[in-house]
């Protein structure tokens, strides 16, 4: 239920306008939901980096190990003087492993968080003075137009962290098809994909003992309160994450601690006690299931690497 109120207008940046529009749609929906791409303001990006250091969160360290062991094979597949395009820019060890192994002609970082993108690409430019560094602030979940001067002849797109799992299967297909259209024929796509595994391992990874994932989830509410005209109170929500086996996905929610009303601008939304705001899905794949998905979008499998425990996979795909 939504009621109309009066509120003072405030000047919003394009990123804040997108957050407002998403929040107004998502809070009016049933069930309530909001896209996980809005996790990643500067503080959210910092919190995610901290999540990656938690002992329960296996994807980051496992993917890094795979990339370290496979780096020379990846470089051979990418070829000399490739351009490296990172979807979700970061200054983490993963991109540095690739930069050192590939020695690409240029690097293009793409991220929705302008502040984090600027900081991360500046660090990379300072640390790799031989590298031609470019940055593009964009929502890569939508159709992309990539700048030709940053692409070169043989781009390799890098989409780490199993971020593909944040899309439902239809969205994942749309993302891969958009990327297929944006990249020239023969381009590579190096992508991290989390694998189906034991429920306890998965649920521990998204409910770390230190509570960092909970802070990350609640930061979305902090953003709405701080950046929009809203009275939403982060203390009135709590984090919950669980594995939905039927859908093969981890779900993250924010649970309303009590019956409450939340105002955003001139609209008021009712939350029942225990009602959830669905903030993220993280789909898990089998290797063959992901290859089939990528193949249906015009990407052929060139190589795949897994860790010995088969927790995580990294795929090298070729754009046909």
Mean pLDDT rating: 93
Unreliable sequence segments: 1-8
Radius of gyration: 20 Å
N-to-C terminal Cα separation, in Å? 48 Å
Question: Structural class of the secondary structure composition?
Answer: alpha/beta
Strand order of the largest sheet: 5-4-3-6-7-14-13
How many strands, which pairing sense, and closed or not: the largest β-sheet?
7 strands, mixed
Instruction: Report the sheet-strand fraction.
Output: 25-35%
Large-scale geometry: globular
Helix content: 25-40%
Number of helical elements? 10
Number of strands: 14
What string, H for helix and E for strand, traces the elements in order?
EHEHHEHEHEHEHEHHEEEEEHEE
Topology record:
Blueprint lengths: L1 E3 L9 H15 L3 E2 L8 H10 L6 H21 L4 E5 L5 H10 L3 E6 L2 H14 L4 E6 L10 H4 L3 E5 L9 H14 L5 E7 L4 H7 L6 H16 L9 E8 L4 E8 L3 E5 L2 E5 L4 E8 L3 H9 L3 E8 L5 E8 L1
Parallel strand pairs: 2-12, 3-4, 3-6, 4-5, 6-7
Antiparallel strand pairs: 1-11, 7-14, 8-9, 9-12, 10-11, 13-14
């Amino acid at each position: 239920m939504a009621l109309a109120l009066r509120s003072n207008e405030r000047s919003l940046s394009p990123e804040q306008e997108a957050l407002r529009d998403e929040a107004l749609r998502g809070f009016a929906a049933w069930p309530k939901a909001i896209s996980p791409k809005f996790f990643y303001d500067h503080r959210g990006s910092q919190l995610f980096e901290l999540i990656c250091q938690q002992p329960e969160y296996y994807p980051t360290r496992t993917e890094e190990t795979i990339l370290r062991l496979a780096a020379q094979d990846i470089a051979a597949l990418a070829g000399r003087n490739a351009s490296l395009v990172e979807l979700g820019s970061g200054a983490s060890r993963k991109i540095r492993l690739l930069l050192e192994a590939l020695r690409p002609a240029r690097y293009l970082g793409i991220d929705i968080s302008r502040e984090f993108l600027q900081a991360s690409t500046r660090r990379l430019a300072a640390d790799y003075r031989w590298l031609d560094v470019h940055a593009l602030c964009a929502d890569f979940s939508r159709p992309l137009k990539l700048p030709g001067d940053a692409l070169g002849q043989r781009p390799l797109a890098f989409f780490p962290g199993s971020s593909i799992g944040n899309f439902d299967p239809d969205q994942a297909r749309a993302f891969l098809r958009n990327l297929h259209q944006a990249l020239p024929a023969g381009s590579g796509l190096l992508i991290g994909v989390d694998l189906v595994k034991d429920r306890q391992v998965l649920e521990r990874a998204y409910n770390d003992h230190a509570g960092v994932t909970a802070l990350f989830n609640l930061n979305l509410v902090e953003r709405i309160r701080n950046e929009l005209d809203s009275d939403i109170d982060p203390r009135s929500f709590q984090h919950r994450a669980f594995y939905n086996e039927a859908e093969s996905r981890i779900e993250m929610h924010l649970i309303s601690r009590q019956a409450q009303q939340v105002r955003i601008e001139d609209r008021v939304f009712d939350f029942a006690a225990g009602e959830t705001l669905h903030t993220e899905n993280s789909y898990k794949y089998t290797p063959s299931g992901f290859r089939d998905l990528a193949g249906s979008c015009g990407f052929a499998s060139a190589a795949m690497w897994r860790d010995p425990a088969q927790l995580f996979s990294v795929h090298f795909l070729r754009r046909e």
